[in-house]
Amino acid sequence: MASVLTLDNVNTDGKTVLVRVDINSPLDPVTKTFLDDTRIRAIVPTLNRLTTAKVVLLAHQSRPGKNDFTSTLGHSRELGRILGRPVRWVDDLYGEKAMNAIESIDFGDILMLNNVRMYDEEMKTKGGFSTQADTNLVQNLASVADLFVYDAFACAHRSTPSGVGFTHLIPCVAGELMKNELMKLDRALENPARPCIAVLGGIKVDDSIGVADNMLRNNICDEVWPTGGVANLLLELSGVEIGAMNHDFLVNELGKNWYPTVATAKSLLVDFKEKIRLPVDVAANIEDNRVDLTLDKLPVEAPLFDIGIQSVLNLSSAIRRSGTIHLNGPAGVFEVEDFAFGTVEMLNACAESDGYVVVGGGHTATLIMKRGLAHRMGHVSTGGGACLDYIAGRTLPAVASLEASAEAFSMNVARSVDQ
Questions:
Q1: Which of 269, 308, 382, 407 is the one with CA 20 to 30 A from 374?
Q2: Exposed e or buried b for every residue in 374-402, given b needs 16+ CB within 10 A?
Q3: 199 φ/ψ angles, rounded to the nearest 5 degrees
Q4: The 356-359 sheet, strands edge to edge
Q5: Which of 28, 100, 132, 133 minimizes the C-alpha distance to 70?
Q6: What is the pLDDT of residues 191-245, one digit of tens each?
Q7: How far is 85 from 79, CA to CA, in rounded Å?
Q8: Is 379 helix (H, G, I), strand (E, B) or coil?
Q9: Neighbour tally for 252: CB within 10 Å
Q10: 225: β partners
C-alpha cells in the first residue's frame, strides 16, 4: 500500500478530529430523500474508530447548478439514523458558527459541517498543497483540530482545500474506507493472480485507454478485453468500419482528448496486438431492435449498443478462467433492456468466477449493488474517476497528500497526536 499513515498509527482519545468523507448520494428530485445510502454506511467503520474523539465531518453533496445540490442537513440526519445516535449539524463551514459548534461538542460527539461546495474557496482554489492550505477554510479548521482523517476515496483525484489543504499543518491519516480501497486495489495491481485480465468499457474511453496502457506496458495484466465505446474505438483503429454515426459519437464524447487518445490506442494495437482481445461481433440498435452482426457485416448506419453474443460468450469464458479481473464500465447501453445482455452476462461471469474481481466505481458498481452481487466480488470500489486514475497509474492528489503528511509527521506523529 502507499506509504501513508492510518488510524492504526495514532491515538485519537480526547482529540478533535477532522474527517473528510464522500457521502454524496442520489436524492429524490422532489422530496430530497435518499435513494441510496451506500456511501453514508461506508464511513461507519471509520467513525467507530473515533468514539472517544470530537469528530467534525467535512462533506459535499453534488455541485452548484445541479438539482441535487443541497446542504448536508439531511445527511446528518441519515447518518444519525444509521448510527442510532444524534449527529449534530451546523449551517456553516469555517466561520464563527462552525468554530463555536466545534468548541461546544463533547468527546464522543459527531458534528457535520455544511456542504463544502457551497463555499467559493472549495470550488475555486487551484494549485498544490500550500495554495490549498492558504485558505480560510483550512486555516480556521486546522487551528482547532489535532488530526485530519481522509476517508473520501471517490474524491481522491481532486485537489481541493478540504482534501489536501491540511497536508503540512496537522497529521493526516487514511480512514478505514480509504485504507481498504488502497489495499484492495494494490492487491490487484502489484501482485495479481494470473492470468490477469482487464475488461474495459463504458463511455469514458480516454480513461480506459489510459488504464490499458498502464496495465499492458507494466505487465500488470495479461490481456485487455475492450467493450462498449472502448471496443468501438479499437475496432475502428484496427480497420473495422463502424459507421459514421458511431465514429462521430466517439469524436464528440472525447472532444479535445480525441487525438491523444487515438495516438495511445494506436500504439497499443501495434505493441500489444495479441493481448488486446477485440469483439468478434456487435449488437446494433436498428429501429429499436437488437440486431447482432459479425464484423464483416459492418459498417451499419445504426448505433452499436452492445458487444455481440459470441463476444459475450468469449468474454465470459475468459473471466471464469482468470485469476484476477479488473472490471471497469458496462459492456453496452444496459439501460435499454435488449442491450443489457453483454453487461449482465459479464457481471454474472464475474460473480461465478473463483478469481479476484476488482470493480471500478460508477455505473458498474451501482448495477452490481442493484443486482445483489457485491458480496461475490473481491472489491467494489466507491470511486469512479479516482479508481480509474489509480489503476491507470496516475497520482491521486489525496494519496500524495497523505504520503507527504506521513513523511512530514511520521517522526513526530506520536508527539503531535498522542500528547
A1: 308
A2: eebbbbbbbbbbbbbbbbbeeebbbbbbb
A3: -105, 110
A4: 223-226, 196-200, 324-328, 356-359, 379-380
A5: 28
A6: 999 999 999 998 899 999 999 999 999 999 999 999 999 999 999 999 999 999 9
A7: 9
A8: strand
A9: 9
A10: 199
pLDDT, tens digit, 9 for 90 and up, residues 238-249: 999 999 999 999
Q: Three-state DSSP class for 276?
A: strand
E strands, 67-138, are 88-89, 110-112
Q: How far apart are CA 283 and CA 267, in angstroms?
A: 27
**Is the CA virtual torsion 273, 328, 265, 153 positive or negative?**
negative
Are the C-beta atoms of 174 and 149 separated by less than 8 Å? yes
Tens of pLDDT, residues 6-32:
999 999 999 999 999 999 999 988 888
- Residue 193 corresponds to which cell in the numbers above? 493472480
The Cα 261–Cα 271 span in angstroms is 15
What is the residue type of 156?
A
- On whether the CB atoms of residues 27 and 34 are closer than 8 A, the answer is yes
CA dist 28 to 32, 69, 318, Å?
5, 12, 39
Which pTM does this prediction carry?
0.91
Domain annotation for the chain: domains and CATH numbers: 7-181+396-418 (3.40.50.1260), 194-354 (3.40.50.1260)
Biggest distance spanned by C-alpha atoms of the chain: 72
| Among 112, 157, 106, 133, residue whose Cα is nearest residue 18 | 112
Give start and end residues of each alpha helix (H) in 255-308.
258-271
Per-residue pLDDT tens over the stretch 32-49: 899 889 899 999 999 999
Distances in Å between the alpha carbon of 230 and those of 56, 203, 328, 391? Answer: 42, 7, 11, 16
